[in-house]
Target: Transposase
Amino acid sequence: MRRAYKFLLRPTCRQEIVLMACLEDHRQLYNGALEHRRTAYRKAGVSVRYGDQSAELKQIRADDAGGQGRWSFSSQQATLRRLDRAFGVFFARVKAGRGRGYPRFKGRGWFDTVTWPKDGDGCRWNSQPEHPSATFVRLRGIGHVRVHQHQTVKGRVKTVSVKREGARWFVIVSCDDVPADTLRATGAAVGVDLGVAWLVTTSEGEHVANARHQEASASRLADAQRALARKERGSRRRRRVVAQVAALHAKVRRQRLDGAHKAALALVRGYDVIVHEDLRIANMTRSASGTIDTPGRNVAAKSGLNRSILDAGWGVFLTVLAYKAESAGRKLIAVNPANTSRTCAPCGHIAAENRVSQAVFTCTACGHAAHADVNAAVNILRAGLALRDAAGAA
Model:
């Protein structure tokens, strides 16, 4: 299996300056390649491909030996591939009838990652293995940068990426052939219902609280955003406040990820089969504002619900749960969420009136009463086991 490890970098002041220069040169390469494609198609109707632009890299590096020529050729090819993938996604959206998402030029705050696609080609993970207590990654043009390695890297290192997040730098190591850390079988299965009041509710009646990290930091974020609005663009004070806003958002992101890891790990350790809803989160959090001709209804309420869903971090949780289940040898099943919250678990009666409130479920046919999320989790588990049995019979 493949796995990515993320570690904090500890660059020196000089190395941080060079890292910024590396990021800036790759950003300019990306923007230049995008302008090349746009101009060629607009002026001559010619579609420029990745292979064409990659072939021109040699001349670009020779003409700018002190700039683009400083960095790894393969990392620059990875940047061109990144642009090529952006165009591929755009054309796929056009083909599907959703013609938005044309690749944009990257501003200084919108390009934060450089990738070396092969360990040993312009980069080297653990470049000083003889060092007794520290880990280093060697990057061409930058040198040996110290890494705060907090866990063991397993498998074969495939790619190395450097990412800037606010004032911090991280290295992301992607590895192939990572051995699975299979856990002992428990013989148990569980259904999982995701919600806003509770992040996770299981079919056995257990609840995992929704910490609402974004809501807890809302007042500080609002103060920082107001201070940002008062600062002059391009000023040193504005850059300082931008860093404060970024640090607050990064803290919320880390808190949400930490909660997702803990909740997912508890499920993976306790159950062999985990069933969850196949949620389309992007569709669920789509704006209800509508258009000028056909304005939406209950826009404020829908906006509040969208914020609550995104603050809960369902997508983060499901992503973490998926790779933890794969690593542990557990089976993860996604089921259609339709009517799981309206169906009575004992009798199967389906009605919107069964859901009395956010937390109360009372069947209008048989009178069964239960916590609404627990009832939904039982239905989710039953649907998942039916899918598993049907797949086994086939």
